[in-house]
Amino acid sequence: MAAPAFDPSSGSLEPSFDLLGKLNQPWTAQMALDLLPENNGPKVEVFRGSVIVSPHAGYIHQAAERQIVYLMHEAARKARMWGYPEVNIVSGDDLFIPDFVVLRRSGRGQITMPITDVVLIGEIVSAGSRRKDVIDRPREYAAGGVPFYLRVDFRNHVPGLVLHELVDGEYRPTVAAAAGSVFSMTEPFDFSIDPADLMDEEDDED
């Protein structure tokens, strides 16, 4: 028996992860928002008609995300922008959940924000997502017109930051720094950090 086609006017399908793999049509961002329940677990994104489910990354990744979002939000607010971690960004029929974003306006009260409101979008590269974070996602963010892309990378556990600016439809690196030096950008707002500060300090052992 064929899986049901989604009719948004019917209201007959309750939000459930059981629907993954059962619908006989490409997924869209709106379908995911309507049919999949909110959760604090894996990221659920939609890319080119497919639902992509990703578990949370390791603790190095999470520590870096915690730190950079806090510091970047403080810097962005001085320029009347807003920083957020892991929020829903809609681009056409695609639904992205980047590691962090800076928006032109507050997302207060919203479930999603359009990609056109994103000033800077960022990904923290994990071993299992290197191709997505370095090639695939930036390509889609560029297609959506996001002016700046910030990549946080850990090579041999040494953090580094690279800021890319959208030029003629492609991202070009403009600022880069590794741990022990200062990453300093002036666009789209002033922000400086030693990438080493993105790592948790280990307690001294007795």
Automatic annotation (TrEMBL):
UniProt keyword annotations, A-Z: Endonuclease, Hydrolase, Nuclease
Annotated protein name in UniProt: Uma2 family endonuclease
InterPro entries for the chain: Nuclease_put_TT1808, Restrct_endonuc-II-like, Uma2
Protein origin, superkingdom: Bacteria
Residues in Putative restriction endonuclease domain copies: 35-193
Tagged with keyword Repressor: no
Record organism: Paractinoplanes pyxinae
A Pfam family assignment: Uma2
GO MF annotations in UniProt: endonuclease activity
